[in-house]
Automatic annotation (TrEMBL):
<dbReference type="InterPro" id="IPR001789">
    <property type="entry name" value="Sig_transdc_resp-reg_receiver"/>
</dbReference>
<dbReference type="GO" id="GO:0003677">
    <property type="term" value="F:DNA binding"/>
</dbReference>
<protein>
    <submittedName>
        <fullName>Two-component response regulator</fullName>
    </submittedName>
</protein>
<keyword id="KW-0238">DNA-binding</keyword>
<dbReference type="Pfam" id="PF00072">
    <property type="entry name" value="Response_reg"/>
</dbReference>
<keyword id="KW-0597">Phosphoprotein</keyword>
<dbReference type="InterPro" id="IPR050595">
    <property type="entry name" value="Bact_response_regulator"/>
</dbReference>
<keyword id="KW-0805">Transcription regulation</keyword>
<keyword id="KW-0902">Two-component regulatory system</keyword>
<keyword id="KW-0804">Transcription</keyword>
<feature type="modified residue" description="4-aspartylphosphate">
    <location>
        <position position="53"/>
    </location>
</feature>
<feature type="domain" description="Response regulatory">
    <location>
        <begin position="4"/>
        <end position="118"/>
    </location>
</feature>
<dbReference type="InterPro" id="IPR011006">
    <property type="entry name" value="CheY-like_superfamily"/>
</dbReference>
<dbReference type="GO" id="GO:0000160">
    <property type="term" value="P:phosphorelay signal transduction system"/>
</dbReference>
Length: 123
């Protein structure tokens, strides 16, 4: 079964690049460029994992993570963000994030982190 990834990234060029790389690697990808849309998609499509930016229009990545976890949603969440400081990392992990990758990141690092979080990696 093809892993389904939700990418919540407001920077269109980054989203397109990541989508292309993930698609080439065999993932099915949905993109949201807005936090509220990202939250709604996460609830509607039930992806296998979410790649989540921190700074987004309407809802932050942290708010999305908190709201998903508050409803019992255990989908793996990988933050992919420019917020490269300990308070942001700690807040993300405390909110229930599974991993944290800092921009600029290599696609291979993101994919390795993402793959490790997918349910099939635990099998």
């Amino acid at each position: 079964m093809t892993p389904h990834i939700l990418l919540v990234e407001d920077e269109v060029r980054i989203a397109q690049l990541v989508e292309l790389e993930l698609s080439d690697a065999g993932y099915q990808v949905n993109i949201a460029h807005d936090g509220q849309v990202g939250l709604e998609l996460a609830q509607a499509i039930q992806p296998d994992a979410i790649v989540l930016d921190w700074t987004l229009p309407n809802l932050t990545g942290l708010e999305i993570c908190q709201q998903l976890r508050a409803t019992g949603n255990a989908v793996p969440i990988v933050f992919a963000t420019a917020m490269d400081d300990q308070p942001h990392r700690q807040a993300a992990m405390a909110a229930g994030a599974n991993a944290y990758v800092v921009k600029p990141y290599s696609i291979s690092d993101l994919m390795e982190t993402l793959t490790a979080q997918l349910p099939s990696a635990a099998a």
